[in-house]
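Operator note (shift B, R.M.): manual run for MFS transporter requested after the automated queue skipped it. Running by hand, logging everything below so the morning shift can see what happened. Input copied straight from the record, untouched. If output looks odd, do not overwrite the archive copy; leave it for review.
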Amino acid sequence: MASSASHDATPIPVAPARAGPGWAGPGFVEFVALMALMMGLTAVTIDSFLPAFPAIQRDFSVADPNRLQLLVYVYMLGFGTAQLLYGPVSDGTGRRPALIVGIAIYLAGSVLAMLAPSFEVLLLARAIQGIGGAAGRVLAVAIVRDRYDGRDMARVMSFCMMVFLIVPILAPSLGGAILFAGHWRLIFGVMLALALVTLAWFGLRLPETLHPGFRRPVSARAIGAGIAVTVRTRTSLGYATALGLTTGCIMGYVGSAQAVFDSGIYHLGALFPVAFALIAGAMGVATLINARLVRRLGMRRLAHAGVLGLFLVACLQLALMLGFGGRPPLWLLIATLAACQFLMSFAMPNFNALAMEPLAAIAGTASSFIGFYTTLLAAFCGLLVGQSFDGTVLPLAFGYCALSGLALATVLWTERGRLFGSGGR
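Run finished. Output pasted below as returned.
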């Protein structure tokens, strides 16, 4: 196993993969399911309550409907910032204690959200949920890296990222069903229940995965050194940046979706979650295909094909949207967004795996910094796109085109101008 991509300046020792017969934890299918649940918990929290925006606006007398988007972006702010802590702490204490603390914080935020007396308190609760939910995102990636490397790691990450990417887009259907049965506060009760299931499953079934030889002191100096190594590793920084930019497309879509599909343009009402589900189906298909192909074709080839295709389709989408004055037929918007999400699903899991691949010896710290960096970059880009909504889909189309173009340029910088031909990975 190579310790780093050949063009990285910083050599880093690599952990031995521990997927063999000595493993005392769950088998492959159960392991992937648990990691996917850890990531899916954070994902379902992002936007399962989008259908509840009108009810929340009414209950709390929120005058500006664009303020409701803050419920997504405040969560992402807490989620992104807290990721800086969980990885380094888990590198010193182990993955299990760090995750248990994170889920406890998430549970507290969920209870506060259920009881929130005002919109401001609900925003605070969302930030606390983000701080706690960051543990699942960071530690799932670190645990996968503890156990697997190379294309096997990419395969597992593909399944996990499928859940992380699809759940926020399917979650409005769950939220809509809960709203049909009762009050919007019940949505946070479901989040609470999912967190308890995750805590019990993790606590009972998954042993500590951090190799004793890779425990690092929990200190500002050690954390700073790990972050410095991550930033100096060209492959890691480049693919993390590309991941943040492509995730920014999704965050812009999530922030704009309620206005585009319901209140602002198409007025779908109860059919709003159906539009989400159609687009999510494309992502699910692509991620499953990626998981099957990555061991044969390699992470780089699939990631490069995905981001290049995404940029080309995003440019076509922008041209079509301009042709319809920013208000295209609904079927055309869904078709072009589904095509973009399909191609994006080849890029993002492999971007994540490529960013982590050279950093096994500091997997926790690296996962934390990469998660922090990509989440805040994505939230910032998504906020710019979402807050630019002007009654048309043009801000969304411009956002996809610009962000995918920047991601492609970043990949070209990372690979020194080469695509598709960077060896076995």
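Quick read of the result: Confidence is low (pLDDT under 50) at residues 1-20. Residues 40 and 170 are 11 Å apart (CA to CA).
Leaving this for review. - R.M.
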